[in-house]
């Protein structure tokens, strides 16, 4: 939530693109008229915002929700159905496994063709857009993302870390440089997990705490991803002349929180979820998303470095607040200290 509190306001500062954008982006005129009319409407009351958000969780027709790409509603229904299914031989589970098998084959083929697809999307936008305009908009996207991450890493997190541990957060972060540099290079929290555990051990965090908090943070603590989701969705909306309402921002906040927790710790895994969140607030995914794909390899490295840094900050906070210690023989060996040999016991039969 702290990451969202930083990323969402920064995303709202993204400027609209110039007047000639409808020509470059080939956006229908009626879309601009509807957007302008919507921007003139009164802001709905808070209770209406909350009611609309919760209504979006429950679809009127699950088949229509699947066809209309209402993934959040589909996710809620899937959780309920999965909880109610008791027998593993259920026909619903068999159907789900068969669909999963077919989808996996299709997705694998699409991934193999992704390089050509991304190149085609980028090429079409380069031919439509003014390079200066596109470069300026991408500069805003990159600058807003990196500035939000910098505020989170160097201002918000250090304040909380110092308040809870009374340690210098910047010295602690620099001592863990091996972890976040590896994360930046690999763009994967999972690939950096072993090094993160080593850094936590070197900082004196007990084995019980580090073996629990660091892997858990690798799975659910995605600060950089939570910052990136609202920024990229607002970027897609603004580049198409759309103005998001209060309801849209509430939905983005809720979806970004849940999606960042469920993001897999592999490179660029958040791109698919960005498309899902954009669909929840009615933002069309146009060719500009291909340009976002093209630069995501760079932004993903900074997101991963921030995620790993947050894992190590969190591990130290848990260690300091719980005070759990475990000086076991395994820890002594990992720390490079010699094990104490057990004194020989006296055996009466040998006397």
UniProtKB/TrEMBL annotation:
Pfam families, per this entry? SDF
Write out the transmembrane intervals.
Answer: 62-85, 105-126, 138-164, 212-237, 249-266, 272-299
- Give the keywords, sorted: Membrane, Symport, Transmembrane, Transmembrane helix, Transport
Task: Report the principal subcellular site.
Answer: membrane
**This protein's record includes keyword RNA-binding:** no
The way it spans or sits in the membrane comes to:
Multi-pass membrane protein
Location comes to: Membrane
Annotated GO CC locations: plasma membrane
MF term (GO), any:
neutral L-amino acid transmembrane transporter activity
Family affiliation: Belongs to the dicarboxylate/amino acid:cation symporter (DAACS) (TC 2.A.23) family.
What is the designated name of this protein?
Amino acid transporter
């Amino acid at each position: 939530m702290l990451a969202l509190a930083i990323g969402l306001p920064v995303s709202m500062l993204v400027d609209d693109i110039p007047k000639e954008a409808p020509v470059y982006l080939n956006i229908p005129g009626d879309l601009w008229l509807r957007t302008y009319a919507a921007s003139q409407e009164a802001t709905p009351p808070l209770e209406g915002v909350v009611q609309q958000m919760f209504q979006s969780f429950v679809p009127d027709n699950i088949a229509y929700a699947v066809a209309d790409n209402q993934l959040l509603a589909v996710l809620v229904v899937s959780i309920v159905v999965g909880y109610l299914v008791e027998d593993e031989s259920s026909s619903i589970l068999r159907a789900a496994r068969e669909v999963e098998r077919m989808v996996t084959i299709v997705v694998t083929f699409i991934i193999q063709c992704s390089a050509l697809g991304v190149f085609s999307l980028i090429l079409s936008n380069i031919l439509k857009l003014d390079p200066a305009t596109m470069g300026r908009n991408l500069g805003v996207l990159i600058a807003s993302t990196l500035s939000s991450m910098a505020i989170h890493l160097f201002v918000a997190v250090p304040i909380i870390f110092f308040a809870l541990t009374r340690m210098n957060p910047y010295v602690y972060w620099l001592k863990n440089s091996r972890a976040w540099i590896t994360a930046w290079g690999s763009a994967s929290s999972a690939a950096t997990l072993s090094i993160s555990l080593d850094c936590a051990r070197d900082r004196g965090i007990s084995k019980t705490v580090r073996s629990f908090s660091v892997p858990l943070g690798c799975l659910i603590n995605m600060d950089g991803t939570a910052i990136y989701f609202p920024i990229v969705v607002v970027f897609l909306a603004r580049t198409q002349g759309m103005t998001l309402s209060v309801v849209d921002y509430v939905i983005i906040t809720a979806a970004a929180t849940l999606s960042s927790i469920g993001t897999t710790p592999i490179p660029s895994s958040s791109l698919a979820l960005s498309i899902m969140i954009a669909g929840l607030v009615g933002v069309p995914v146009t060719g500009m998303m291909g340009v976002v794909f093209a630069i995501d390899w760079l932004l993903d490295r900074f997101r991963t470095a921030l995620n790993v840094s947050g894992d190590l900050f969190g591990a130290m906070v848990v260690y300091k607040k719980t005070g759990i210690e475990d000086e076991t023989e395994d820890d002594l060996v990992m720390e490079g200290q010699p094990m104490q040999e057990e004194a020989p016991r006296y055996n009466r039969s040998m006397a």
